[in-house]
Amino acid sequence: MHAYVRDIMTTSVVTVRPDTPCGELAIMFREHRVSGFPVTADDGTVVGVVSESDLVALAAGQRHRRRRAGGQATAGDLMTDPAVTISPDDLVRTAARLMQSHRVQRLPVTDRDGRLEGIVSRSDVLSVFRRSDEEIRREVTQDVIADGFFTDPARLAVTVHNGIVTLEGEPGSAVLGASIADQVWHLEGVIAVRDRFVYPARSAPSFPSDPGL
Predict the structure, then answer these.
(1) What is the C-alpha separation between 180 and 168, in angstroms, rounded?
(2) In the chain, is it the N or the C terminus that has fewer CB atoms within a 10 Å radius of its CB?
(3) Which regions of the chain does DSSP assign to beta strands (E)?
(4) How far apart are CA 110 and CA 83, in angstroms?
């Protein structure tokens, strides 16, 4: 299965402008029942994302680095920028990993020029990955470790939680451990891989660690 973002994204997206005042934002959040809006410029390019948590921080009296002295704060004052975006031609797996590493609930979908084409939410992504954690763990243990690399699964510990695979134990070499981790990344339903293997002191794994894990 190779699902693409364009297959699951929502194309009807409510957006706000940088000069949208926070009072209007509060009303829009309540009316549309979403937790975030893309902030777009006049040409349709995404310049940031403003969320309910940004409004909560403002209400709690936390000062924002862009807030102007006097006057009502706007979406441009409160938004997070640059926005974390994704292309409609990217795999859904890529969207899942971006959400995981950046800890966001949705991603604006943009074209090559940065113009908004849609939005994809965490629920959209999870609807594609219907495999259970136990099913993923069995595939890692049997198909990858035992059958793929002819390694005794008892030497390694594999745990899976919400699609995040943690690998522990002593694979014997950095090359073998990195190869196993790399193969696990390509399994359907895997959102992230935590390589916690113990390697020989004189060697280091070549597999890059997942940012934010």
Answers:
(1) 11
(2) N
(3) 36-40, 46-51, 106-110, 116-121, 156-161, 164-169, 192-197
(4) 11
Q: Which residues are CB-neighbours of 99 under 8 A, at least 6 positions away?
A: 105, 106, 107, 122, 125
Q: Which residues pair with 21 in a beta bridge?
A: 74
Which residues in 95-117 are b (16+ Cβ under 10 Å) and which e? bbbbbbeeebebbbbbeeebebb
Report pTM.
0.62
The owner of tokens 């862009």 is 66
Taking 70 as the pLDDT cut, the residues of the chain under it are 1-2, 61-71, 201-213
Q: What is the DSSP string of 147-190?
A: IIH---GGGEEEEEETTEEEEEE--SSHHHHHHHHHHHHTSTT-
Tokens of 113: 């020029």
Residue pLDDT, tens place only, 114-143: 999 999 998 888 777 777 899 999 999 999
CB-based contact 172:142 (threshold 8 Å)? no
Cα separation, 97 vs 101, whole angstroms: 6
